Amino acid sequence: MSLLVLIILISGCTNKACEIDTDCFSSNTCEQSKCINNKCEYSIINDCCGNDVCEFSESYTSCATDCPNCDDSNKCTADSYDYHKEKCVNKLNFDETCCGNTRCEAEEDYSTCVLDCPDCNDDNICTDDSFNYRKQECNNEMIIPCCGNGICDEGAETFSNCVSDCPNCDDDDKLTKDSFNYETQICENILEYYLIEDFEQYDENWDFFRDEGWSTEVEDGNTVLRLIAANGNIPIVLDNYIFKFRFKWVEGNMHANFRQGNIDGEYNRYMIGMSHRGIDTLNKQSGKNFQTINELDVSLDEGWHTLEIRNYNNIINIYVDDNLATKYEDTDNPILSGKVGFEVHTGGSPVTPEYLIDDVEIKIINEKDIIYP
């Protein structure tokens, strides 16, 4: 037999010359051959392993020649072969909890299934970190109040207990009222005083007419101003203000002056008359005209006391030891601005007058601070 004849017999070529069916040999077991009219005719045998078609009766285990291995090595998928689409199907199973099905389920978290669940810890101590299983996303809700959330929380935090959130609002100015505005989250330093003087570090704010008539001394560990036959004032001209100080009588008399100064060439002032008896009178000087406009008659012992004078337009309130002593309305050409000061004098007695002064304040006044007569 020639080589050409042998090749034809092995290949099973269509239309090969034949006399009987056995002359039509095919190496493909899934090919059926017949000799029809002296010619070989071939056809594919259905449901045959080897016909290159994965058929319903076949699977990878029964016919690896025709059917692929659909196992994707994922325990969370149901693996099958779609005979119509002729491809593998690997369907994730969400009916049961399974780590690896790409869905973080209620029984899972980052510690038990890193394949499906994210790490929701944002390293912020001021967030409550959790996973929303319905939305399949992390929740990092801000904890309020919490030191470290970047917000100075009202009612819970201050600079003293949470420096990371709350600023230090102290501007080192004793004349301002320092506070933190929780709504705007900024410091507020509002001017509250024109002057505060406790004489501990005396900065010579006063003008004295007799230098030898004043000095500072320490009494019971506290530095105070000592006035002996002296007359002085603070050179600040103001209209409405609160003038407050502590005093102690030693000898003689004293005037606590307010709204004092020259107007149109005349010396004007209001005066509180003080003596060993206590607080005596509210006086007014307009040029050469000196008059008592209100009797106070507040008796005091020889210890330390507080006098507070509130001026608002033509209304004057006098407080002694934080108690209202009088409220007065000056309707006769009132003095509306001037300085404050002290005048220590003999009161007509052969004595050396002396008073001790401490904690002097000149404070901004508002209408709500005044009581109308």
Features:
373 residues; mainly beta; Jelly Rolls; disordered N terminus
Provide a quick synopsis of the model.
With 373 residues, this protein is mainly beta. It has one helix at residues 3-11, and strands at 31-36, 39-44, 77-82, 87-92, 127-132, 137-142, 176-181, 186-191, 193-197, 207-208, 214-219, 222-228, 231-238, 241-251, 253-263, 266-275, 278-286, 289-299, 304-312, 315-320, 323-329, 338-345, 354-363. The chain has 1 helix and 23 strands.
Low-confidence stretches: 1-13
How large is the radius of gyration?
A: 53 Å
Q: How much β-strand is present in the residues? A: over 45%
Give the second-level CATH assignment, the architecture of one domain.
Sandwich
Helix and strand content put the structural class at mainly beta
Number of H/I helices:
1
How many strands appear in the DSSP assignment?
A: 23
CATH fold descriptor of one domain: Jelly Rolls
Helix and strand pattern: HEEEEEEEEEEEEEEEEEEEEEEE
Our measurement of the CA-to-CA distance between the termini, rounded to an integer number of angstroms, reads 145 Å
User: What is the CATH class of one domain?
Assistant: Mainly Beta
Indicate the mean pLDDT.
89
For the sheet with most strands, the description reads: 8 strands, antiparallel
Helix content: under 10%
CATH superfamily of one domain: Exo-inulinase, domain 1
- Globular, elongated, flat, extended or rod-shaped: what is the shape? rod-shaped
